[in-house]
Amino acid sequence: MKELVELLVKSLVKYPDQACVTERIEKDTLIYEVTVAQEDMGKVIGKQGRIAKAIRTVTKAAATKDNLRVIVEIIG
User: For the chain (length 76 residues), average pLDDT per consecutive 10?
Assistant: First the structure.
């Protein structure tokens, strides 16, 4: 799952070497924290948050088949 989030984020940004995804587990939820270069924040979030919402939707769809709860947080 982490690889999926990394693939999606790194394919969007100008500086993929600065993109970092960390995985954290709280209770029954996987939390992915996405950190990118300041210049790339707009590309990852998108207009009105559309790109961020799409990343979350794809990740949740992939997690559904494994019965997991997933949250994707974008950190500046």
Answer: 94 94 93 95 95 95 90 90
